[in-house]
Amino acid sequence: MSVIRTVVTGVGSYLPSRVVTNEDISKIVDTTDEWIVERTGIHSRHIAAEDELTSHLALAAARNAIADAGIDVQEIDTIILATTTPDNTFPATATAVQAELGLHHGAAFDVQAVCSGFVYAMTIADTFIKTGQSKTALVIGAETFSRLLDWTDRTTCVLFGDGAGAAIVTGEQGAGTNADRGILTAHLHSDGRYKEKLYVDGGPSSTQSTGHVRMEGREVFRHAVVNIAEAIKESLEATGLTAEDIDWFVPHQANKRILDGTAKRIGLPPEKVVMTVGEQGNTSAASVPLALDTAVKDGRIKRGDLVLLEAMGGGFTWGSLLFRF
Ligand code: UT7
What we know:
This protein is an alpha/beta fold. 32% of the residues lie in helices and 26% in strands. The chain folds into two domains: 3-174, Thiolase/Chalcone synthase (Peroxisomal Thiolase, Chain A, domain 1, 3-Layer(aba) Sandwich); 182-324, Peroxisomal Thiolase, Chain A, domain 1. A five-stranded mixed beta sheet has the order 1-7-6-4-5, sandwiched between helices. A four-stranded mixed beta sheet has the order 8-13-12-11, sandwiched between helices. Strands 2-3 form a two-stranded antiparallel ribbon. The radius of gyration is 18 Å and the shape is globular. The structure holds oxa(dethia)-CoA. Oxa(dethia)-CoA (UT7) is lined by residues 31, 35-36, 39-40, 115, 154-155, 158, 217-218, 220-221, 224, 254-255, 258, 282, 312-313.
């Protein structure tokens, strides 16, 4: 049966040039390189310059992805930008990217699902393409998450970083089998009962300020391991594929221990896990496309490989997406 598949035709990313090490952070809060590495696997993270906005990071990643796909920018008819750190409360940061790219047609909007944002945005793009709303979409995850951090709170400020990743996705005819290139299945979830476990203590409607990240780390960890494994199971069951069929696991980069635990739970060997958390920290919605771009550009992920994405974040939100590159 012929179907429309949403095919990833190009990927790109961007990291701010400033690198902040654990050693640097230990001069600001009471922490050590040893504690951070042992509990999270993070050694360093990139932090945006003062005049660098989320839209700047997003635009740089987008330009890389457009060049990688080799398309004319005017072919893009939809821009979906996943972010928790928009340039302004409104308009959507996606519209700033749209303007900078010289696009005056189609639709551009932001998606707010925190760390799961890129998986949400890709799933929306997939639906848009399958329904004919879009032919070629630019999907971005971009964050200046450092702006939401309380730099006196050692339980959160050591974990996060800034960056952006992007993908160009285009509709192509497929045979309707698992051998098709493109997105094979996607599964999104949220459960608002857990809002207090991971949130920002401000916002336009509540405090008229941006606020700072607050997290009950151990609780989030506990839910993450269970929810992620469940979402992955859904993707495998929906396609009839098994963990052995997966060539590359590209997870949200929150904590090395979570990634190791998840891979073990689903029976994936460590060499199939793309891990960037050590040098990038947790970049929220940017982490999955940053990891994807890293593994494509260094030659690990090749055309035809089966790639599994997953993420979990504030809300809680979580999800998984399986695609053949
Ligand atoms: O991307 C969204 C999803 N987010 C996540 O998935 C994050 C999930 N959670 C985690 O990754 C981990 O829970 C953390 C890395 C945040 C924390 O690791 P943990 O092993 O769960 O540590 P903990 O929160 O249980 O804290 C253990 C101890 C505490 O001291 P006491 O109470 O045992 O005396 C903390 O006060 O470590 C202390 N601690 C620190 N010590 C040195 C907390 N942060 C630090 C720190 N440096 N930066």
